[in-house]
Amino acid sequence: MTEISARSPRITHLAWDELDAEGLGRHKDLKAYPGGGRAWDWDETGTRHSPGVQIADVEELLEHGCDIVVLSRGMDLRLEVPAETTDFLDAKGIEWRALETREAVAAYNELAAAGRAVGALVHSTC
């Protein structure tokens, strides 16, 4: 894990299979949150395109103080976001958005620039 300031790091580059974020370097998939981020390793939680983003994937974001979460669904929208995950966020009172990757990065960067405690799970391929 790499720590930066208490704000959410801006994503500075996005292309197929790669993205860069301030102070975090280049990754294929990224977890970003206030104060830092790290590679998003799907094998840690058993994440696959289907059933998609797991509750365990978003828990780390909440542990870092996020009050809004942006979930990237991939460039081709192949990554699913199951109701169990969104219901979990709703039950915690966490605002969330699930968007195509380019839209997700734009929304995340906008929220970070506004000083929101935003976290993101970003998938840079399909």
Could you please describe the fold and organization of this structure?
- Keywords: Cytoplasm.
- The protein has 126 residues and is an alpha+beta fold.
- The chain has a single domain (2-123), classed as 3-Layer(aba) Sandwich (Hypothetical Protein Mth938, Chain: A).
- The protein has 3 helices and 9 strands, in the order ββββββαβαβαβ.
- The chain has helices at residues 55-63, 83-91, 101-113, and strands spanning 2-3, 11-15, 18-21, 25-27, 29-33, 36-39, 68-72, 95-99, 118-123.
- Strands 1-6-5-9-7-8 form a 6-stranded mixed sheet, with helices on both faces. Strands 2-3-4 form a 3-stranded antiparallel sheet, covered by helices on one side.
- It starts with a strand and ends with a strand.
- The mean pLDDT is 95.
Quick recap of the structure?
The protein has one domain (2-123): Hypothetical Protein Mth938, Chain: A (3-Layer(aba) Sandwich), CATH 3.40.1230.10.
For the record, the count of structural domains works out to: 1
DSSP strand content = 25-35%
Strand arrangement within the widest β-sheet reads 1-6-5-9-7-8
User: Care to count the β-strands?
Assistant: 9
* Count of individual helical segments: 3
Low-confidence stretches: none
Taking all Cα atoms into account, the compactness measure Rg is: 13 Å
Provide the succession of SSEs.
EEEEEEHEHEHE
* CATH-defined architecture: 3-Layer(aba) Sandwich
The CATH class turns out to be Alpha Beta
- Termini separation comes to 25 Å
**Shape estimate:** globular
The biggest beta sheet is recorded as: 6 strands, mixed
**In terms of structural class, how would the helical and strand content be classed?**
alpha+beta
